[in-house]
Amino acid sequence: MLTATWLEPIPGLWRDEAAHRYWLGDHLFPVSITGVLAHGLSETAKRAIEAKRPIWEPRGITVHAALERYSQARFLVGKSPADALLEAETVPGHHPYRDWILPLLQLPLWEEVQVIASERLGCCLTRNVAGAFDGAYVSPALSERQGQPVRVLYDLKTLSAHGRPYSTAAQLGGYMVLEASQGNHYELGQTIWSKPGEASCSTFYSREQCLSAWAAVWSSYCLSHRPF
User: Fold this and answer.
1) Residue 137 bridge partners (DSSP)
2) Which residues contact 3 (CB under 8 A, 6 or more apart)?
3) What is this structure's pTM?
4) pLDDT band for position 133 (50/70/90)?
5) What are the pLDDT digits (tens) for 38-82?
6) CB of 201 within 8 A of CB of 109?
7) How far apart are CA 108 and CA 95, in angstroms?
8) Is the pLDDT of residue 88 over 90?
9) Residue 227: pLDDT band by 50, 70, 90 thresholds?
10) pLDDT tens readout for residues 106-131
């Protein structure tokens, strides 16, 4: 398998988990990627999301934590897949969400790629925005096919049994912009979907699709919040 290096964290960048705010040293970022995306939602959509927060929030936090624990154990520390799976089971409160977690961690994808980041914090001082994305990997198969390393930035979404996939191109594009400001380039974006009893990967979004979708959202946000 192609050797890939785990990305180093950005020095001084941290997140206030309770407030969901990002800091670089003593600089507080006024908005996150998710905050920019929320600006484009209707009030009806926002109310619908908030009404179901008690359901999706603990599920999302727990499943994301399990994937982070697994990814770091397997791809950063170098544990076997079986041991990494055991490591993921140490996440507090994981048991009610095992139907989401186990299929996710047993995706064939993890046998085919080298993960280089998990729950990575990013920022851009020029745009004064920050955020955290779920992960990134290098694909040896795609890299060999294209004759150069192919890096994929991915986002994990959890759904109910009847939930439907949707486009995350704008969100992926926002994270690509943050990473580009740090010198990290991604050729593709992808969504990983986790539902009870199943997990799947979306088709790839091109870098251009992601950046175009993000540009539309960012422009709308700036017109409203930064008219200068």
Assistant:
1) 115, 152
2) 114
3) 0.93
4) very high
5) 987 778 877 777 777 777 688 989 999 999 999 999 999 999 999
6) yes
7) 22
8) yes
9) low
10) 999 999 999 999 999 999 999 999 99
**Nearest 10 degrees: Cα torsion 52, 90, 64, 109:** -130
Tokens of residue 64, six digits: 């994301």
Question: How many C-beta atoms lie closer than 10 Å to residue 170's C-beta?
Answer: 22
Q: What share of the chain is helix, strand, coil (3-state, %, to 5)?
A: 45, 25, 30
Considering only CA atoms, give the Rg of the chain: 17
Structure tokens that stand for 128 in this block = 């004064």
- Which residue from 89, 84, 144, 150 is spatially nearest to 111, judged by alpha carbons? 84
Tokens of 10: 């950005």
User: What is the residue whose two structure tokens read 């790629």?
Assistant: 113
Joined tokens for residue 34 = 């998710």
CA distance 133 to 214: 14
Domain range 21-225, CATH architecture = Alpha-Beta Complex (3.90)
Structure tokens at 146: 């294209």
Q: What residues form DSSP beta bridges with 130?
A: 32, 123
Counting DSSP H helices and E strands in the chain, the numbers are 9, 9
Place of tokens 């943050």: 178
Per DSSP, helices labelled H in the chain are 33-39, 43-51, 53-71, 81-88, 98-105, 109-112, 140-146, 169-180, 207-225
